[in-house]
Design goal:
Number of strands: 7
Pfam family, one: NUDIX
Keywords: DNA damage, DNA repair, DNA replication, Hydrolase, Magnesium, Metal-binding, Mutator protein
CATH topology: Nucleoside Triphosphate Pyrophosphohydrolase
EC number: 3.6.1.55
Shape: globular
Cofactor: Mg(2+)
CATH superfamily: Nucleoside Triphosphate Pyrophosphohydrolase
Organism: Methanobrevibacter gottschalkii DSM 11977
Strand content: 35-45%
CATH architecture: Alpha-Beta Complex
Radius of gyration: 16 Å
Distance between the termini: 64 Å
Length: 142
């Protein structure tokens, strides 16, 4: 018997369930530049994978503590998005948030910057995060 023929799992594309933080301060949002992986040196909204038995809000608070060493407070659910990458399928829940404690430190990223609505198109975003940019263009004040 051909084992590969019956291994259906092998042919199923991996789905990643993640969260992202749209961290706001003084009518600007925080963009972070990836320092690792497939999208190194592209910009993104910080966040990461949801762990077992963790709510999305708990996941985003934990991820930002791990990635930026600061404590955030999710203030509003922003949007859910899905994006098909060549090697995986992404499901991402995005939350607007504010920093409650600390100042962002670059632990997993190699740069960060605060952007106004007018500056959103000035950097090279990872593909899925373009949907968040579209959301911000509709909802951010000038």
């Amino acid at each position: 018997m051909d084992a590969a023929k019956y291994n259906i799992e092998e042919n199923v594309m991996k789905t990643l369930n993640v969260v992202a933080a749209i961290i706001k301060k003084d009518n600007k949002i925080l963009a972070t530049k990836r320092g690792y992986g497939e999208f190194t040196d592209m910009w993104e909204f910080p966040g990461g994978k949801i762990e077992n038995n963790e709510t999305k809000e708990e996941a985003i608070i934990r991820e930002i503590k791990e990635e930026l060493d600061c404590v955030i407070e999710p203030t509003k659910f922003a949007l859910d998005l899905e994006y098909q990458y060549p090697t995986f399928y992404l499901k991402m829940s995005c939350f607007e948030a504010i920093i409650k404690e600390g100042t962002p430190k670059l632990i997993e990223h190699n740069d960060a910057k605060w952007l106004t609505k007018q500056e959103l198109d000035s950097i090279n975003w990872i593909p899925a995060d373009i949907q968040i940019i579209d959301y911000l263009k509709e909802t951010m004040r000038d």
